[in-house]
Write a structure and sequence with these properties.
alpha/beta, 4-stranded mixed beta sheet, globular
């Protein structure tokens, strides 16, 4: 009998560096798989369907809500995001670690699902640093950045729900901290 895989949930405000840190983990631990979420938002430059997200329209997403096909889903920044229930269940049954990159709303749903995930919240060094990161990305309007900062304050207020909280002030330090979490938690199960 194969033991179940370990589920990792990583959340952060938009612009906190979560994607960069996750790439470091996936590079260092090739046994860890990445769960590709679905979204109704348009792709950003350089994003690929099926690799970064499954980009679907709102009608398809709502149909999947009605059919109870999401393990978690949320409407964030005006778009839907969700994780396929079947994908996660099938993957964990194979016994390999699985990483979910999801927002705080989704993380809360996963933590309440009975799957016992390892949960990590990545903090920006400050809201001002977060604002600069979002502006430097060059992908969002001033209105979108203002909305993301407002959402970040609300998300940060929920960091207590997570087992681990790390501050991404220095990429090398934060990456080492996140990798230590994976090493510790993968050794447990």
């Amino acid at each position: 009998m194969t033991k179940k895989g370990r589920l990792f949930v990583i959340s952060a405000p938009s612009g906190a560096g979560k994607t960069t840190l996750i790439k470091q983990v996936l590079k260092k631990y090739p046994a860890v798989s990445y769960s590709v979420s679905h979204t109704t938002r348009p792709p950003r430059p350089g994003e690929t369907h099926g690799k970064d997200y499954y980009f679907i329209n709102e009608s398809e997403f709502v149909d999947m809500i009605d059919a109870d096909l999401w393990l978690e889903w949320a409407r964030v920044h005006g778009h839907y995001y969700g994780t396929s229930r079947t994908f996660v269940a099938n993957h964990l049954e194979k016994g390999n670690p699985l990483l979910l990159d999801i927002d705080v709303q989704g993380a809360s749903q996963i933590m309440a699902s009975g799957l016992d995930p390892v949960s990590v919240f990545i903090m920006p060094p400050s809201l001002e640093a977060l604002r600069r990161r979002l502006e430097n990305r060059g992908t969002d309007t001033a209105q979108t950045i203002a909305r993301r900062l407002k959402n970040a304050e609300q998300e940060i207020s929920q960091k207590h729900m997570f087992q681990y909280v790390l501050v991404n002030d220095d990429l090398e330090t934060a990456s080492a901290q996140l990798c230590r979490i994976f090493e510790k938690e993968m050794a447990i199960k």
